[in-house]
Amino acid sequence: MTGSRLPDYLVLDTCVLLSGRLRHILLGLGARGCFRPVWSRVIADEWQRNAARVAHVSADEARAWWDEWAHRFPAATELEIEPFKTGLKYSDAKDWHVIAAGLAARHRHAPASVAILTRNTRDFNRPELRRLGLALFDPDRFLVQCLEVCRPVVVALLEALPRGAADTPDAPIGILSGMLRRERLFRLDRLLRGTDPDPSAPISSGAAGSSGARPRDAVAGFFVMNGGGTGRRG
After folding, report:
1. Dist CA 135 CA 128 (whole Å)
2. Rounded to whole angstroms, how far apart are CA atoms 44 and 27?
3. Per DSSP, what are the bridge partners of residue 36?
4. I need a labelling partner for 66 at 20 to 30 A (CA). Which of 27, 50, 138, 196 fits?
5. How does pLDDT run across 20-66, given as a tens digit for each residue?
6. With a threshold of 0.85, does the pTM exceed it?
7. Closest by alpha carbon to 98, among 62, 136, 71?
């Protein structure tokens, strides 16, 4: 991929699907053809376990929600990923299944471009991914690129995010801005507010006003909406 082109296929790691707000945006972008979502049965199982644990929903309810997304994106699931783990060495072993899903998608849809979207970019070895033909994004960097390529779609999805009573303390900087900051989408927030001095600069791992929470812990708004549609809080 070069310039501001988006990947044809995007592996959605479990951690980015845990946030209701991010999930709403990402699945909305996928439904509108900005990219094609990819996941695996391992990611599906991880999400359902975490949904039941963190959001205190039943296993049946978590499974029903996932089944809804799988129905919306029937080609998203890569079924056979184990063979694609062969030769992986430098990335964190617990995330090999994510890389394998990307390689399976690349094999199935060649010569389409494939990328991985995760909050845990430090667990992935970038040189290894480059050799394998995979790109790597964190949510902030990816959504900034989406804003450049398909701005009307991104803006419409952001405007559709629910503004609940819990968001009112952020009124001085704007409710939407507050939600984006809680999701660690600092660059996206600055660009939307027109305050980013250099949109082409590398995106840092933190920003002024950050709570200092690790990306792995950033699951604010876990179930802001059910299936990326109706309002629901867990």
Report:
1. 10
2. 15
3. 9
4. 138
5. 999 999 999 999 999 999 999 999 999 999 988 887 889 999 999 99
6. no
7. 136
Instruction: Compute the distance between CA of residue 151 and CA of residue 95 in angstroms, rounded to an integer.
Output: 31
Q: Which two tokens stand for residue 107?
A: 């094999």
Cα–Cα distance, 90 to 81 (Å, whole number): 18
Which two structure tokens, joined as six digits, stand for 166? Answer: 């819990």
Neighbours of 198 (CB within 10 A): 7
116 near 11, Cβ under 8 Å? yes
User: Which of 34, 15, 45 minimizes the C-alpha distance to 157?
Assistant: 34
Q: Pick the residue with more confidence: 215 or 183?
A: 183
Q: Distances from the Cα of 134 to the Cαs of 45, 101, 211, 222, in angstroms?
A: 23, 11, 31, 28
Tokens describing residue 31: 């439904």
Environment class of residue 79 by beta-carbon count within 10 Å: exposed (0-12), middle (13-18) or buried (19+)?
exposed
Q: Is 191 exposed, middle or buried (0-12, 13-18, 19+ CB in 10 A)?
A: middle
Beta bridge partners of 231: 225
Judged by DSSP in three states, 3 sits in coil
Q: Phi first, then psi: give them for residue 9, nearest 5 degrees.
A: -130, 140
The sign of the dihedral angle between the CA atoms of 151, 154, 157, 161 is negative
Which residue is associated with the tokens 């900005």?
34
Round to whole Å and give the CA distance between 207 and 220.
17
With left for phi above 0 and alpha for psi between -120 and 50, is residue 73 left, alpha or beta? beta
Residues 6+ apart with CB under 8 A from 120: 13, 15, 95, 215, 216
Q: What's the CA gap between 123 and 121, in Å, rounded?
A: 5
Helix (H) or strand (E) holding 37: strand 36-40
